[in-house]
Write a structure and sequence with these properties.
flagellum, Flagellar_basal_body_rod_CS, alpha+beta, cell projection, 146 residues, 41% helix, two-stranded antiparallel sheet, cilium, Flag_bb_rod_N
């Protein structure tokens, strides 16, 4: 694997890490009915229980080194769901709260999400510097040859 493809795999992983962290932060307050409650609230008159969207399911990035193949190098990042994906939270005013006033809130750790953003930032900068150094080295080699 070339230096550029290794650095670009790091840039892609950092970009994915930012995207996932931003999504988790933006949806931290997107609650829904507890799965055990079936998502039904009290219906006024019609006898049909309204349905509500489920709580946001937070994501995480798993990043591992790419070690397979004849020329290993770089990194591979995959997205998976956080488990458990929700925590019970008290919100009796929500229309989908169960009889105890509980709703499902996404299991998002804001401190961890900001750590993920910082990690992505420094990873992106480091991989960009590798590409910059490679380009400068090639320019110098071309100057020597002419």
């Amino acid at each position: 694997m070339s230096i550029l493809s290794i650095a670009t795999s790091g840039l892609s992983a950092a970009s994915l890490r930012v995207s996932v962290a931003a999504s988790n932060i933006a949806n931290v307050r997107t609650t829904g009915p507890l799965p055990a409650s079936g998502g039904s609230g009290t219906s006024a008159g019609a006898g049909i229980a309204p349905t509500f969207p489920a709580a946001y399911v937070p994501l995480r990035v798993d990043q591992v080194s790419q070690s397979s193949g004849s020329t290993p190098g770089g990194t591979v990042a995959t997205v998976s769901t956080v488990s458990p994906s929700y925590a019970a939270q008290s919100d009796p005013s929500a229309p989908f709260a169960n009889q105890d006033g509980l709703v499902a809130a996404p299991n998002v750790d804001l401190a961890n999400e900001f750590v993920q953003l910082a990690t992505a930032k420094y990873s992106f900068v480091a991989n960009a510097k590798v590409i910059q150094a490679y380009a400068e080295t090639e320019d110098t080699l071309l100057d020597i040859k002419t």
